[in-house]
Amino acid sequence: MKVGLISGHGNGDCGACGYGYEEANETIRIVKALDAKLEACGIETVVYPYGRNAFKDCNRGLGLQVDFSGCDYVLEVHLNSETGDDNIGGTEIYVTPREATTGTENLILEYMEELGYRNRGVKTENFLVINKVKNLGVSSALLETCFLDDVDDMELYERKFDETINAIARGICVGFGVGYTEEDTDDS
Are 6 and 48 in contact (CB under 8 A)? Predict the structure, then answer.
């Protein structure tokens, strides 16, 4: 099994900002942790370079700068933004309308919901990067982990960061029938 990981924004685009966080920094933090977790579960990973911005690469006609064609699944990671309302904003996942199934995405959301995130569901949208990946014949999704500008979401995110990574990895593993382990991947 091979999974591609893309951290949203970056390369001069900070993405959403709130409560001292920048989306580009947090997506890298999530992808690095998810990369280690998936590899600990025996999944080969391909990570889009942290110094690049996949959306800008595709939007400028450069295309994806990583060959994801050999992947079974590609996950683009983001954090959502909306005026915080002191309620947990939640998590949601987007797939292209061409995606045949959403079992893996529903599992990710279910496992995150168990941690306290509000499950906003799987939605369809032709977002540029996941659409380019889908053009390669590879299943892809864009995860909006939580709302970066919602204090409740960010408190939950920080308090349960490792559990959040585990929930995402578990969803991918179970969704693709790969053995999942919750062993700590931290070397400290």
Answer: yes
Q: Which residues in the chain belong to E strands, given as ranges?
A: 2-7, 17-18, 21-22, 44-47, 73-80, 91-95, 119-124, 139-147
Tens-digit pLDDT profile for residues 152-161 = 899 999 999 9
How far apart are alpha carbons 75 and 138 in whole angstroms? Answer: 11
Nearest Cα to 47, choosing from 37, 60, 56?
37
Amino acid identity of residue 176, one-letter, is: F
CB atoms near residue 165 (< 10 Å)? 22
Exposed/middle/buried for residue 173 (C-beta within 10 Å: 0-12, 13-18, 19+): buried
pTM over 0.85: yes
* Strand arrangement of the beta sheet that strand 119-124 belongs to: 44-47, 2-7, 73-80, 139-147, 91-95, 119-124
Closest among 62, 121, 115 to 95, alpha carbons compared: 121
